[in-house]
Design goal:
2 copies of one chain form a homodimer. Chain A has 2 domains: about 280 residues, Zn peptidases (Aminopeptidase); about 120 residues, Alpha-Beta Plaits, CATH 3.30.70.360. Chain A has 13 helices and 16 strands. With about 450 residues, chain A is an alpha/beta fold. The two termini of chain A are about 20 Å apart. The relative contact order of chain A is 0.18. Chains A and B meet through β9, α5, α6, α9 and β10 of A and β9, α5, α8, β10 and β11 of B. β10 of chain A pairs antiparallel with β10 of chain B, so a sheet runs across the interface.
Amino acid sequence: MDYINKYIDENKERFLEELFELISIPSISSIAQHKPDMYKAAEYWKKLMLDAGADKAEVFETDGNPVTYGEKIIDPAKPTVLVYGHMDVMPVDPIEKWNTDPFKAEIKDGKIWARGAEDNKGQSFMHAKAFELMVKNNTLPCNVKFMIEGEEEVGSPNLGKFCEENKEMLKADIILVSDTSMIARDIPSITTGLRGLAYWQVEVTGPNRDLHSGLFGGAVANPINVLSKMIAGMIDENNRVTIPGFYDDVLEVSDEERAKLAEAPFDEEEYKKSIGVKELDGETGFSTNERTGIRPSFDLCGIWGGYTGEGAKTVLPSKAYAKISSRLVPNQDHEKMAVVFKEYFESIAPDTVTVEVTPLHGGKAYVCPIDLPAYRAAEKACEDVFGRTPVPVRSGGSIPIISTFEEILGIKTILMGFGLESDAIHSPNENFPLENFYNGIRTIPLFYKYFAEGEK
Amino acid sequence: MDYINKYIDENKERFLEELFELISIPSISSIAQHKPDMYKAAEYWKKLMLDAGADKAEVFETDGNPVTYGEKIIDPAKPTVLVYGHMDVMPVDPIEKWNTDPFKAEIKDGKIWARGAEDNKGQSFMHAKAFELMVKNNTLPCNVKFMIEGEEEVGSPNLGKFCEENKEMLKADIILVSDTSMIARDIPSITTGLRGLAYWQVEVTGPNRDLHSGLFGGAVANPINVLSKMIAGMIDENNRVTIPGFYDDVLEVSDEERAKLAEAPFDEEEYKKSIGVKELDGETGFSTNERTGIRPSFDLCGIWGGYTGEGAKTVLPSKAYAKISSRLVPNQDHEKMAVVFKEYFESIAPDTVTVEVTPLHGGKAYVCPIDLPAYRAAEKACEDVFGRTPVPVRSGGSIPIISTFEEILGIKTILMGFGLESDAIHSPNENFPLENFYNGIRTIPLFYKYFAEGEK
């Protein structure tokens, strides 16, 4: 491990400079005007890989944003690691809540502050630098491939097709991803489960125009009132989703497994304090970690309609909108969920309004068995760096493409992430502790070492 | 009436030019940055009155926007008409739904299209021109005073104090206002009742920051879900408001009066068609006209929270907001309603969130007896111009200041409006038919004539 620490020490300033340059590209995939930034980020990744020592690197066009692919094949007989990451980031609104420019990274209190500092520019960048480190020190023990995409935050709509079309190129023994968190600063963890995702936008239309709320109020159904009632009706008094069929395919977790999950350290008071709520709430009969780990959710991600400006404008609005998402668990299918959601939403709409449901994206849940040799390699690598065995956790988050990889490429994924819950990913003031960043660069080469040994 | 028609014919182009200049001032009272426009509009009104023949006219400062006052006293022994109108307008959003520039009036299909074309620049302007017409033709039969304010659309927060401080100056026998509608193009009507208004903004806060909906979704209460449920719970299955005390003071209208109200022509199919809805909805046991005329309403004027931009950003938001308004009927008191609303809203908030309720403004309902001499004068004036007796109607709209006038100045108000329901006031593409505009200018001098005769 000495050569690893030495290389990091000698190059840490440069690592940050390069990362900050990547961060400065506002590659927000959900906003069309940032399309040119996606190409800038893709070219930046190409350069990053070639500089690190890749045999080749290329920017591939897709029907959406580009994918950067790079590889170094040291011996076709040796095992191959495929690194997956994403160069796109979430929007930055509400921008007024940021303490710094989201696209101008700053170091403060031992953390990097910026959009993408962690998710996923910071974490994927660790892989580029760990690769560079192995190449420059002649310690790369196996073949390595990188696939860095630009549409993860919008559900990877084109990466499935890219995998289909490039199966041979992407052939590997394991996929390695750092896009998840550790349980705590000093407790490494490996994510063994991810929730899937279904996301819908709904539009409720009442009158054909905004009406005067005095002249019409009381006699004409108000689409915001109606939408509120429809939303309220979709969750029952036990916080269970009322959509028929919603729970049909949910994989019930055995009491034994639930007991094991309950062993993970969790301080409810600390958790509540960290997010500033007096009480938690969720599906009756499940613990907080179960509610996010093994049970589906039903969240309003956004709602809007009528007058939302300053002051007291009276109006009976024509339309109300909401963005609704559900985190899915094995074996819920997002396409089936889209069907049952649409049918139910339409069925509960009163005759006073018309409704439109648009599925925006979705993905399957994923489970990684903990007896996989690659899982054990990740375990050992973490032990070396953190001095303790990583905890296997079911994450509430979604990386829909992970289950797609398994389906199309037939390859399992190791989710060895170095983020923290406090990183505020997807929120204002996203950050990534420097300690985690460097520990990531330390751990990855050890994963390669143990993985290559195990696969020998 | 011949001299009236002649004067209008000779000056109609100039009338429009002057009105369009007034419309071009974007005097939106609810948006602070338009403050300078309020002064422009006030000065414009001063000029309008002096040009029309007022003895004097002055712009008065208030704690908010200015008030323009003007008068012509032909004989202190004669009766006095006080004209009230407002120079401020509503915001123009959603701006993308306008077919024309809202502040650049255009004539098309026999209508004036612009923000304020009707409410209330167009309608108050008729009074300035009717006044001019009487002065220039030496037919003004009584004294006249004008009070044009700049905060009607935000609930006239400073006009009560202005009336208190200028009681002597504002002394009059009747207040005349055109800020209401006629039943139809060919059916004149005089508004004998107005609903009051209560308006609140609510804020629901869940976690102290936007959270990742994957990592937290299912375990932390979502403020949009919570707000939707709270709103839904405030209206029962009969569309009655569930707030305790809400209906306590509602003046129940006798079966006799309800029968009379039912005589007003009303075509439900036409009504539904004009606003593009399949079904109407409102409080069980009341007709559409009763629901807007004699019963209180409960409308969401706006709602917002979380991600409302393009695409599918997942977030468990920190906050959700709504603007809620209730049209009140006699004898509901908006201050009492603000108290019961706040108490109830706070009482139904679960422990998972904190809520804040801000009353934004309010006003009392108003009723005008139809045996008032001034009411009969308005009736006769309308008969002369429209060839039929105007229908007395209870409007669902609110002009909260009207009941304040009665309280402070002790003067009743005649609500002789010339708008149409199709004028889309407060909405995109507000318009005012030229026919109504000129009929207004024709009717007003006749009101003065009959009123002066009656009061002799």
